[in-house]
Design brief:
The complex is a heterodimer.
Chain A (H helix, E strand, L loop, with lengths): L1 H33 L6 H4 L9 H15 L2 H24 L12 H15 L2 H16 L3 H31 L1 H16 L2 H11 L4 H25 L3 H9 L4 H12 L1 H21 L8 H10 L3 H27 L11 H4 L1 H19 L15 H40 L2 H34 L2 H29 L3 H16 L3 H11 L3 H25 L3 H9 L4 H34 L8 H10 L3 H33 L4
Helix pairs in contact in A: 1-19, 3-27, 4-7, 4-10, 5-6, 5-17, 6-15, 7-8, 7-10, 7-13, 8-27, 9-10, 9-26, 9-27, 10-13, 11-12, 13-15, 14-15, 15-18, 18-20, 18-22, 19-27, 20-23, 20-25, 21-23, 22-23, 23-25, 24-25, 25-27, 26-27
Chain B lengths: L1 H16 L11 E5 L3 H16 L4 E5 L5 H7 L4 E6 H14 L2 E6 L5 E7 L2 H4 L6 H6 L13 E5 L8 H7 L4 E5 L3 H13 L5 E6 L3 H4 L2 E3 L33 E6 L2 H4 L1 H9 L4 H12 L5 H11 L1 H11 L1
Parallel strand pairs in B: 1-2, 6-7, 6-8
Antiparallel strand pairs in B: 3-10, 4-10, 5-8, 5-9
Helix pairs in contact in B: 1-2, 2-12, 2-13, 11-14, 12-13
The chains are: A mainly alpha, B alpha/beta.
Chain lengths: 656, 316
């Protein structure tokens, strides 16, 4: 007992010291800010000696890799291999003139195949959903584009899963490899997509193969992480049993460890599929054909209705693949009696083969079952456009005022203030925050991340990004938090709100940009508006999850002591859910950082705009430096929130 | 319909191929497409002409600035729309590095400059003169520009020097850069609802002309040296005190290896030349008539045999 109390006392004392240091640092930041007038120039903006030519170094390094080491031959050979696979799927799905020259497969055959897979994995409902998704695609005249997209995903996703398994297993085997891999994965997952694309253009070129490779790079990190997590969680008893059965190391991995880690690995598979679909539009910047490319063309011609149709298709595909992979994850291996005849064991396969034959035959007789041309297709574009016009017309008076108010009274002053701040004051302030949250180590981490940003020479632009993201996350909290509380009240509400969240998240973000400009014009309000739409999603999701997962016993205890609903919410449920909600805030920051880069297509003066320039001039060094600057912001927030949430969880006794 | 065009052209190609010296490689000719409709249709038109000669063709969508790097490396074979204003610098840079070359100009001329939709003229009747525009600057004011007018320019990487022009001519305008062409059109579409006056960056030939009729602002006429020599132009102490050239080039570019690998296709490419109305027609087929680009190209080829057949016949 005494030991416990001294321990608590010790923790308190440490907390006090931490706060004192943080206060001192905060005062220092304040002094630097107030005294800006008398500060030497070198403390206001990073002096010339501090700005290092990272971009040139990276470019020199890449030139060396490419030309002197001849890495380009290796990457191109790998790309040719990928291209060979892509050609096969492209031929089968949309009849590209390549080996094996069998395709295109009629749409009705693919739809029935999808339905059968759905039935096999989960039952009638998934069968209907999967089949109807492809019917929708065909009837809307999007067949060819969708097949172009799928032909890449079908190659990229399995390769990504395979690579993820290999790297994940290697990381699990060797602590050294894990130490190298972990920071790389952290950076990779917070690096904006465009930063990846420039080196891919240089090393691989453009076209479907580049699209596939960018998709693989983007989708592999979660797979590696989940594989590693799954393997680490395998109970020693299971491995012991494998040993006793005399399994070799490889057999142990193949037949014992990996199957036991099945759940985590399949979550990874699901993540890979979702990430692949998220890349559909972005990868078309470097030549991935299909839905994404079409979407950008339609947006360029201001055809909102038809772009929304494509957006719906992407969401349907995502939901379908998500459901299928989840069904696969939860499906238990079937146990079949010995001696069951081949026919019965494979009856679904037979039904499928017969159906394929029937539909293939039918499609030869009725061409409409083979291919539906764009001319014969349905379109929802007109009602969608009309609806869009109506929404904009109704909102217009409000947004005109809002636009004026936000720009004149909030955004411009905020932005000017951010740009006015001496960089030294910002650094010291971040150290204060770091120290308050996690002591000296966190303070140094904050300093390192933002110090590096200062050293890139993009300080002003980085500050504009910080200002946009901060304000957007603030607004997203104002919207997402109450919505999350409202949504957590009942199971059915929660499910409805989460469904909307999923849809918003998979709907291609580029489509939001046009209506947002129509409402607000080309300015920061439009940028913030687009970012908020995205940033609110994780906040709502985690608020709901946090509130719904509060232990029932705690709530009952509160009810018994006569607390009102409001009291229970504010004094019991929210504090207990706060660590989870903060994970939502963390995600929200990440989403904002991704979206703010895409919002450069509206028109910004931040890092995103420079990133766009780097992409169009294929400047690898500049692109990576800018990408890293964005990643560092994300990583700093991630670090602070993780440290804080862990401490909080411990204090609440939620986890050890 | 498309097959018919190809068939008839294939007959032609076969009959003329006997006269050619070298065979084209059977590897596909890779044609890049970008995100505006005239370029996509033109690429398919040329691609279908090549196909009619027995070549295989593939299309790949790429960024319109980064494409020159790809042409240079031979990843894509050619580029059909090199706009002087928009892509001149990227093209010149790639040209200097080597690997691609200029295959001549189209008849079409391009113009890129400040532009307004026609309803703007109602509230500012002195247009298209630039001084009249400057006099109505406050009509174009927005919250972020205060009482100065706002000019919505293209993305910064298009390097239009609008700010320099505003300074050189002492205009009462603030330049705001949109992030993409879509953002420009979205502004015009939004302005149309309440007929709000706007002045944006625009170019011709372009599908927007068909959706929203309008005019270019007439700045002091461009003359050689205006962008480099302060003495040229109305302001003796500043550069960029003039409009953009009203007749910029529209070039074709090709990978250096194309000439040897596909000699027949290359000789056709040399002859290909489109005019402004032809390009506008291609864009219209997609943007207004809602054809898919490949169908639009087939349609165009069918209706304009007189234009493209001589290129193929004379080529062999």
């Amino acid at each position: 007992m005494t030991a416990l109390s001294t321990n608590a006392h010790h923790v308190d004392a440490r907390h006090d010291v931490r706060m004192r240091v943080a206060q001192i640092l905060l005062m220092a930041a304040l002094v630097l800010t107030v005294g800006k007038g008398v500060l030497p120039e070198g403390l206001v903006r990073p002096p010339a000696w501090m700005v290092w030519p990272f971009a040139d170094w990276i470019n020199a390094f890449f030139d060396f890799l490419r030309d002197d080491l001849g890495l380009i031959h290796v990457t191109r050979a790998f790309a040719d291999g990928v291209e060979w696979l892509l050609d096969i799927t492209a031929n089968l799905l949309y009849g590209k003139n390549r080996w094996p020259r069998l395709g295109p497969i009629p749409w009705s055959v693919i739809a029935i195949t999808a339905a059968m897979i759905g039935y096999y994995l989960s039952g009638w409902r998934l069968a209907m959903f999967a089949g109807l998704t492809f019917v929708w695609v065909a009837v809307m005249g999007q067949w060819e584009w969708t097949m172009e997209t799928l032909s890449v995903i079908i190659v990229a996703a399995p390769l990504s899963i395979l690579l993820g398994l290999v790297f994940g297993t290697m990381a699990w085997r060797s602590a050294g490899f894990r130490m190298v891999l972990n920071p790389l994965l952290n950076v990779a997952q917070s690096l904006p997509h465009f930063a990846y694309m420039i080196p891919v253009v240089v090393f691989i070129g453009v076209g479907p193969k580049a699209g596939a490779i960018v998709t693989i790079i983007f989708s592999v990190p979660p797979m590696i992480r989940m594989t590693l997590l799954g393997l680490q969680k395998v109970p020693p008893e299971v491995v012991e049993a494998g040993h006793m059965a005399g399994a070799t190391r490889w057999q142990l991995l193949r037949h014992v460890r990996l199957p036991t880690a099945r759940t985590e690995i399949l979550v990874g598979v699901n993540q890979v599929i979702m990430q692949c679909l998220a890349m559909v539009v972005l990868a078309s910047f470097i030549g991935m054909p299909g839905l994404g490319q079409k979407l950008l063309q339609l947006l360029q011609a201001l055809k909102i209705g038809r772009s929304i149709e494509i957006g719906i298709t992407i969401v349907l595909l995502a939901v379908m693949l998500d459901r299928c992979s989840k069904a696969w994850a939860t499906r238990q291996p079937e146990h079949i009696e010995k001696g069951t005849s081949w026919l019965i064991r494979h009856r679904l396969l037979l039904v499928w083969a017969v159906l394929v034959g029937v539909f293939w035959g039918l499609s030869l007789m009725f061409p409409v079952l083979h291919e539906i041309g764009r001319r014969d297709a349905f379109s929802l574009a007109d009602p969608l456009d009309a609806m869009m016009d109506w929404v904009i017309m109704v909102l217009d008076p409000v947004t005109q005022w809002l636009r004026w108010f936000l720009i004149v009274w909030v955004l411009i002053p905020l932005r000017d203030a951010m740009l006015w701040l001496p960089f030294s004051a910002v650094l010291v302030f971040l150290m204060a925050v770091g120290w308050a949250v996690g002591g000296r180590r966190s303070a140094l981490i904050c300093l390192a991340y933002f110090g590096l940003i200062a050293m890139t020479g993009w300080w002003d632009r980085a500050m504009i990004t910080v200002y946009t993201v901060t304000f957007a996350v603030f607004l997203a909290t104002l919207i997402g938090f109450p919505l999350g509380i409202w949504g957590s009240r009942s199971e059915s509400r929660a499910r409805a709100v989460l469904l909307i969240c999923d849809t918003l998240q998979t709907f291609p973000s580029f489509i939001y940009l046009i209506p947002v400009i129509m409402l607000f014009g080309v300015n920061d309000v439009a940028v913030v508006g687009a970012v908020v739409l995205f940033a609110a999603v994780p906040l709502i999701r985690y608020t709901i999850e946090g509130l719904r997962n509060v232990p029932v016993a705690q709530i009952e205890a509160a009810n018994m002591s006569g607390a009102s609903r409001r009291q229970t919410l504010w004094s019991v449920r929210l504090p207990l859910a706060l660590p989870t909600i903060m994970v939502g805030v963390n995600q929200s920051v990440m989403f904002s950082l991704f979206m703010v880069i895409i919002a450069a297509f509206i028109g910004t003066q931040d890092l995103g705009q420079e990133m766009q320039r780097a992409l169009s001039s294929s400047d690898v060094g500049k692109g990576l430096v800018l990408g890293l600057a964005v990643a560092f912001m994300g990583l700093m927030v991630d670090h602070l929130i993780t440290v804080w949430a862990n401490r909080r969880r411990k204090a609440l006794g939620l986890e050890t | 319909m498309r097959t018919k065009v190809i068939m008839s052209a294939a007959v032609l190609a076969v009959s003329s191929a006997t006269a050619s010296f070298a065979e084209d490689s059977s590897d596909p000719i890779i044609i890049p497409t970008h995100n505006w409709s005239s370029q996509i249709v033109m690429s398919h038109v040329v691609g279908q002409i090549f196909e009619s000669m027995g070549n295989s063709v593939e299309y790949v969508s790429t960024d319109s600035q980064a494409v020159y790097e790809s042409v240079r490396l031979g990843d894509v074979t050619l580029e059909l729309e090199v706009w002087e204003g928009a892509f001149g610098p990227s093209f010149e840079a790639a040209l200097a590095k080597g690997g691609l070359h200029d295959v001549g100009d189209h008849d079409a001329v391009t113009r890129e400059d400040w532009w307004y939709p026609e309803w703007t003229k109602e509230s500012c009747p002195g247009l298209p003169d630039w001084e009249a525009l400057n006099a109505c600057a406050e009509l174009f004011a927005t919250p972020e520009t205060g009482d100065k007018g706002r000019f919505l320019g293209g993305p910064v990487d298009w390097l239009k020097h609008d700010q320099e022009r505003v300074d050189a001519l002492g205009m009462n305008f603030v330049v705001v850069n949109a992030g993409s062409a879509s953002a420009l059109w979205a502004e015009v579409a939004a302005a149309e609802r309440d007929k709000r006056p706007v002045v944006i960056f625009n170019w011709t030939p372009n599908f927007v002309e068909a959706l929203y009729p309008g005019e270019f602002v007439e700045f002091p006429t461009y003359s050689e040296g205006c962008k480099t020599d302060p003495a040229v132009g109305p302001n003796p102490s500043a550069t960029y005190d003039c409009g953009n050239p009203a007749n910029g080039y529209l070039k074709k570019a090709a990978w250096d290896g194309m000439k040897d690998k596909w000699p027949n296709a290359y000789s056709v490419l040399e002859k290909i030349s489109f005019t402004n109305p032809q390009i506008a027609e291609m864009a219209k087929l997609v943007d207004i008539d809602e054809f898919e680009p490949e169908d639009a190209a087939a349609e165009w080829l069918e209706q304009n045999e007189a234009i493209w057949k001589p290129w193929v016949e004379g080529g062999a």
